[in-house]
């Protein structure tokens, strides 16, 4: 399970929101090996913060999507100038 959090640059919220909804979410949902995508949009108390929770079939599927260095944030060139900071965490998924 991969949790990827983004803080946009001030004033870039709307532009990143378009990228988030039109590019990032469809890309993840259409990628083989990603079995769940849970996108998180900003709240009024954190208007520049976006997140994704991705559940992959296995580590090989995650690496196929983001590369061998899966612990580093995968940055799409379209988002590079919009984002101030990124945080990424990985966990073993536990079915409840």
From TrEMBL:
Species: Seohaeicola zhoushanensis
Superkingdom, taxonomy of origin: Bacteria
Name this protein carries in UniProt: ABM domain-containing protein
Family annotation (InterPro entries): Dimeric_a/b-barrel (IPR011008)
């Amino acid at each position: 399970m991969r949790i990827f959090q983004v803080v946009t640059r001030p004033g870039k919220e709307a532009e990143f929101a378009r990228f988030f909804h039109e590019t990032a979410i469809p890309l993840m949902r259409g990628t083989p090996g990603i079995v769940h995508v849970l996108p998180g949009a900003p709240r009024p108390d954190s208007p520049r913060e976006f997140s994704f929770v991705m559940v992959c079939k296995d580590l090989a599927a995650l690496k196929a999507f983001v590369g061998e260095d899966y612990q580093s944030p995968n940055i799409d060139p379209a988002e590079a100038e919009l984002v101030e900071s990124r945080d990424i965490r990985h966990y073993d998924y536990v079915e409840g």
